[in-house]
Predict the 3D structure of the following.
Amino acid sequence: MGMRSELRHRASGIGFLAAALTCGLAVVGVARAAEAPLLLDGPASASPWKRYGNSPWPQTSFAKYNTLNATNSPPAPAAGTPRKLAAAIAGDPKKGKDLAFDRARGGGCLTCHIMGPDTQSLPGNAGPDLSLISTFGRTDEWLFNYVYDARVYNPDSYMPPWGAHGIFNDEEISDIVAFLKTLKAPKEFTGALEDPAKRPAPVETRDNFDPLVNPAVWELEKGEALYKKAGAGGKACATCHADPKAAFKTWAATMPKIEPRLKKPLSVEEFVYRHAAATTGDKFPMQSDENLQLAVYLRYLANGQPIHVDPNSPGAREAIARAEVLMERRIGQLDFSCNDCHTAKKAANKWVRGQLLGEFRGQISQLPRWRTRDSQVWDLRKRFQWCNVAIRADELPPDAAEYADIEYRLSVLNNGIPLKVPGIGH
Ligand code: HEC
Ligand code: HEC
Ligand code: HEC
């Protein structure tokens, strides 16, 4: 909101005059770099956006639940109003165990909990060890409600509301509770790798610039070739920028930036679309192959430069403030915020199954990067989309203003870390 009204203000003649008066004569005579031509109209990614149809993307719609730009989830229960049980729980512990261990149903409880001697390989520890839960003196009502919707006891809980969000019905939750009530012995782990308390953090030692090791280097080479290739209008990038190594030595490390001509922060990828469309005449929508290739190449040119995104430029504070709200917002059927998984006061630095959750600082300097797990190169927006879809929230199109704000804030949080693109990792 703040940025929008400020943009209107800046665009008006009065705003311009006021700015000129406050700046005084100091700027007179200082040559200002020309503005980069941009196609300002229309979306910068495929529109309407359609989710990827290939693995690992699920094809289900999660429209019943919150997204980063819509409020659809059922409201959270009022704290201290647990559902009353008509009778003691009489579920089937065997069925309950199968449900608790079932990865297909929201990832299963082992994503975050150790659950006794039968715990399968690679449990996580984002939640407490429940191996001795039957000895904690919990009532059936407590256990039922904790699984149904933990927010009734703990509004800050980041355990998904399994019942309230329709992942398990009452009967299934009763079975799970019956299983919990059988848990009274610890898990003996066979080695440090199995025990999330001792499991070593993954260390990436592969050479990300060796094309035999990192296939993303091919994207870099294609990007360099594309830069020199004449576009639809007859000109290449190289026609106007003959020495990209010198011209763009720091540029990508300063992106995204607040672009007064657009009502949102402008990322490298969105710039590539809007600038190419306005200069070479090529249309390279965000997340198209060509867009990714040029984005990898432009970031590569700034490798070694510390990320340097201005938190105080006009409009930046507003973008950051909007991002702070978005990143606290619980979305999807599993009802997580970005902060739930990526801040140390919640689950960051803990394991969800075999994956260690990272904090926001340290996450973006190697993007786009090769993902060994999917044999694909993903840029940051594709990662945002996956962090939505993986928790059963509908993703937004890559050019969404919400993602632009989040990318801006993430970049500021990563200031000072040198770019190293294209990266590689699992
Ligand atoms: C994303 C991680 C996550 C997943 C997945 C998860 N939990 Fe939890 N669970 C937690 C956390 C964290 C707590 C600790 C308190 C809190 O934040 O609510 C917790 C607490 C609990 C408790 C309360 C323990 C007590 O001390 O009374 C129960 C019971 C429980 N979980 C059961 C389950 C069951 C059953 C499943 C699978 C259906 C499950 N959890 C899946 C994170 C998770
Ligand atoms: C017709 C000439 C022309 C073509 C073709 C062209 N550009 Fe530009 N570009 C400009 C002008 C003018 C600017 C603004 C002045 C400057 O920064 O050099 C600019 C600026 C830039 C900037 C700096 C942007 C900023 O934020 O200030 C980058 C990066 C860039 N161009 C990359 C490219 C790439 C990649 C291509 C090919 C897709 C391309 N340009 C094609 C004219 C062109
Ligand atoms: C349920 C947990 C969860 C939630 C919620 C979540 N993420 Fe993630 N995210 C992950 C996991 C797992 C990874 C891979 C391990 C890591 O790098 O932390 C990851 C990785 C990332 C990365 C690093 C990408 C890379 O390739 O190295 C970024 C950036 C990121 N997430 C941003 C976000 C943002 C922004 C949100 C909110 C819109 C979000 N995440 C929500 C689980 C989550």
